[in-house]
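Hey L., structure's done. Input below.
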Amino acid sequence: MNNILYSFRRCPYAMRARLALRVSEIEYEHREIILRDKPASMLDRSPKGTVPVFVASGDVIDESLDLMLWALSQNDPDDWLAPDRTDMLNVIAGNDGPFKHHLDRYKYPSRYSDAPRSATDPEHRNAACEIISGYEQRLTAHKNLMSEAASLADMAIFPFMRQFANTDREWWDSAPYPGTRAWLERHLESPIFKVVMKKHPLWSD
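Output:
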């Protein structure tokens, strides 16, 4: 087996990569790292130092969405790529761009000079909720973001919604997004998510 994945269990980018690799039945060696002590072998392959980093026969894929698309191009048994590709990628771009911007500042306000000093300040939470309102509208029409069946969009986005929900669980549990809450819980309780969240021993060079 030549494939290697450098991963960090709690990183949402790594989560969605592992989901795609799992459903695609692609075998690889899992190398669990901690971000404060990145192994030299990973940095040699991807100097930017973020996970996931996937090495396939010497080629390196170090962007999570690229890795998802690559894996699904090899094998897509659950038809995650079936919905309209342009619409899916636009929805994912909204997550990876503006939603992630506000999520970071909501969850980690002390890390950003343009964020409030307290996570109880609703500015960035409210901005993220504007995007969640769009999810809620989609989820009134069907069980998942694009259709009844789960797709690339759902798998690329729900790990980030997990972070958002856990930032203030008491608030989230009473927030006016019942469809999004139910959608998130279904994916968090899914067999595939439980498998990819299995703990691995720390790997080092």
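Residues 102 and 126 are 9 Å apart (CA to CA). Residues 85-107 form the longest helix (23 residues).

-- N.
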